[in-house]
Specification:
Elements (H helix, E strand, L loop, with lengths): L7 E5 L5 E4 L3 E5 L6 H4 L6 E6 H12 L6 E5 L9 H8 L8 E6 L1 H13 L3 E6 L11 E6 L2 E6 L5 E5 H4 L4 H12 L1 H15 L5 H14 L3 H5 L3 H21 L8 H16 L6 H20 L12 H12 L3 H11 L6 H16 L5 H9 L5 H19 L9 H11 L1
Parallel strand pairs: 3-10, 4-5, 4-6, 6-7, 7-10
Antiparallel strand pairs: 1-2, 8-9
Helix pairs in contact: 3-4, 6-10, 6-12, 7-15, 8-10, 11-12, 11-17, 12-16, 12-18, 13-14
């Protein structure tokens, strides 16, 4: 796929909208770092940002190019949390002389540099160190603010630079996470279709097809990814970048994030709140994709819809407070703003049940997904060993409340509670 053909000025689409992407260049190849000086021509001051690991892997090579005015490296031993403290540390280094941030890393570094550059109204590049997530080309910055997982609207990088020699040597867990994130698109694309049917949400068939083609290209690569095959890892990186471009084309994360991401965010947020462990994002997405498909299969087995449903506000709020602790007020406020618990969804489900079932049936079966993920070492027993059945069940019922996005979780919640 020629990714650069997807970039540039807006073009008219059959969906009735125009789609464009402000990224100027995507370089995924051997020795891609050597292209940075040319890409950075015209900028007066460059700030490099990395963490200890990404500096060792690639940051020192970028520093050696001599194009920077300043460099900031997070010194934390463990994972950097993308919260107010972290983005404040980067922002404090953006002086009047800095007009370009170059982030060196993957998920967290990418989101922090994206958000700070947006706040400071300057450009940024990302030098990818792992094919681990799909946010490289997206407008959203996934952050932790007031103990909530929040996706802030920001802007895309002006350039994405990915050296396949660096990517293929990334920790295998991160490569597997990228694979899980892409295969998880089966779930989110289905949620997008479902919301278009149930909520009348905007839907673009062209962007849907673009993302689905990337999923199908990555699906058979599991063995080669485990072998650290450079071509396969490059293809995975391309798919992850396409996911970000797809989000940019429609202006939100719909083509790349749905119920499987909501479950993943639940495990991360509650893990942080409870000081408990959680898997890397893409791995949680993989496992959660199996869970959401099981929900679809359960819904497809229903013979008759419930006669009525009534929202139990007291029960819901008590459970939200028990699960989300100090973040509960933000969750409650979000859902009060959305008003979906007051919407007569049951009438919509009754009217459109046959069409709903047709959409739900489009995702590969949960057993098929389990087999795909087991090929890269992700077995469901490891998932349940990490979280336990109760936490998984709680996520199924309450992860949706973290977001302002309709998915199969809303459909399942109503049917489950009514029965």
């Amino acid at each position: 796929m020629d990714i650069n053909s997807l970039l540039g000025a807006p073009k008219a689409c059959e969906c009735g909208k125009t789609h464009g992407c402000d990224i100027k260049s995507v370089v995924i190849e051997k020795n891609a770092v050597a292209k940075i000086p040319e890409l950075a021509k015209g900028y007066k001051g460059v700030l490099l940002v990395a963490d200890r690991n990404t500096y060792r892997v690639c940051g020192k090579d970028v520093e050696a190019l001599g194009i920077h005015k300043d460099i900031f490296v997070f010194e934390e031993e463990g994972l950097v949390i993308p919260n107010e403290k972290a983005w404040g540390e980067i922002q404090s280094r953006v002086t009047d002389e800095i007009d370009l941030i170059i982030g060196i890393g993957s998920g967290v570094i990418q989101d922090l540099c994206k958000y700070v550059s947006f706040l400071c109204k300057i450009d940024y590049f990302i030098v990818a160190t792992a094919p681990s997530m799909d946010g490289y080309a997206s407008v959203g910055a996934a952050m932790i603010a007031n103990d909530m997982k929040v996706t802030f609207s920001a802007h895309v990088p002006k350039a994405i630079i990915a050296d396949t020699e660096v990517l293929k040597d990334a920790p295998m867990e991160m490569i597997v996470a990228g694979y899980g994130d892409i295969i998880g698109k089966y779930s989110c694309l289905n949620d997008w279709k479902l919301s278009a049917l149930v909520n009348g949400e905007y839907f673009c068939q062209s962007v849907y097809d673009l993302m689905m083609s990337a999923v199908k290209a990555v699906r058979p690569l599991s063995k080669k990814l485990l072998e650290r095959d450079g071509e396969a890892v490059g293809a995975l990186m391309e798919a992850l970048v396409v996911a970000g471009i797809a989000m940019s084309l429609v202006g939100n994360s719909r083509p790349a994030s749905g119920s499987e991401h909501h479950l993943s965010h639940y495990f991360e947020i509650t893990g942080i709140l409870e000081n408990a462990g959680y898997f890397p994002h893409g791995i949680d997405v993989a496992y959660s994709t199996v869970i959401t498909e099981r929900l679809r299969e359960e819904l497809l087995a229903i013979k008759e819809l419930p006669a009525s449903w009534e929202f139990d506000r007291e029960k819901w709020e008590n459970n939200i407070r028990a699960l989300y602790h100090r973040a509960a007020d933000g969750v409650i406020a979000l859902q009060d703003k959305m008003g979906w618990y007051q919407k007569d969804y049951l009438s919509i489900y009754r009217e459109k049940w046959a069409e709903i079932c047709a959409v739900l049936s489009e995702v590969p079966a949960s057993k098929e997904l389990e087999e795909l993920f087991s090929e890269v070492g992700l077995t469901m027993d490891k998932f349940y060993a990490m979280y336990g059945e109760k936490k998984v069940n709680d996520a199924v019922m309450y992860a949706k409340d973290l977001k302002d996005r309709y998915s199969v979780l809303w459909l399942y919640d109503l049917i489950k509670e009514a029965n």
